[in-house]
Amino acid sequence: QVRLVESGGGLVQAGGSLRLSCVASGQIFAVGWFRQAPAKEREFVSAINYNGETTVYSDSVKGRCTISRDDAKNAVYLQMNSLKPEDTAVYYCASRENIYVDRTVDWYNNWGRGTQVTVSS
């Protein structure tokens, strides 16, 4: 399976920005970003389909985040702006060899190890 490696997390003040990267060891198709805060379930953030023509966002990040992909680099990015303390979580990217895109955790069958995002108030 293709290996996914996330990076770009860190500590930022509320209102700041971060750009998360998900770099794959090979070709990737549907890619989703999810996050998991302590004692909470993993939740959907954003996803992009195989050719970048379809992007979806959760209501909690819509208008503040932009997902994009660079297939020449086997990479997907999540630009996050106007960050809030409630955005604090471990962010994971996930993939599936499928031309569509989905919001559900169980639909994806390949996961990275995550990158920590901490937003201070």
Quick synopsis:
This protein has 121 residues and is mainly β. The chain is built from no helices and eleven strands.
DSSP summary: helix tally: 0
Give the helix proportion (percent range). Answer: under 10%
Return the structural class.
mainly beta
Question: Outline, from the CA principal axes?
Answer: globular
How far apart the termini lie comes to 39 Å
The helix-strand sequence is EEEEEEEEEEE
**What is the number of strand segments?**
11
Biggest beta-sheet profile: 7 strands, mixed
Strand content: over 45%
Low-confidence stretches: none
SSE layout and pairing:
Layout: E1 4-7, E2 10-13, E3 18-24, E4 30-36, E5 43-48, E6 55-57, E7 65-70, E8 75-80, E9 89-96, E10 110-111, E11 115-120
Question: Which descriptors would you attach to this protein?
Answer:
4-stranded antiparallel β-sheet, mainly beta, 121 residues, 7-stranded mixed β-sheet
Describe the protein.
- With 121 residues, the protein is mostly beta strands.
- The protein is built from no helices and eleven strands.
- Strands 2, 4, 5, 6, 9, 10 and 11 form a seven-stranded mixed beta sheet that branches.
- The termini are far apart.
